[in-house]
Amino acid sequence: LNTLLTTMSGNDELIRACLHLTGSLSSGIDNITPLLDAGILRAIIHNMKQRRDDVETLEMSINVIGNMAADVSVEWISKMISEGALISIISVGSVHPDSVEIQIASLKALANLTRFEGSAGSEAAAETVRER
To answer: What is the mean pLDDT of residues 41-57?
Structure first.
């Protein structure tokens, strides 16, 4: 999945299928941890940077990240934030301010990434949520 997400960025259907599979595989902490250990988050973020104009794929990517964040511990949240999940979601939301789908996905993902009080990045996310 990592290789496909980072090397096949020109193939819309393949990328969306990889994101769908990643979302399906990442239900529950026992399934998410191996994916995160394998670098799937970095691959998703890399793909998001490559596909800045593809609203549908960006929305799927944000949903996958947000759903992963909903099931992991504070330690994994911190790792996800340090790998760029928070800033990537915030930047996509600011690049596509008129996309309701991206704004909704972004707000849900930001809520999951900042659900632990005092976690790294919660102030930045809270400020973004207030602005939107």
So the answer is: 90
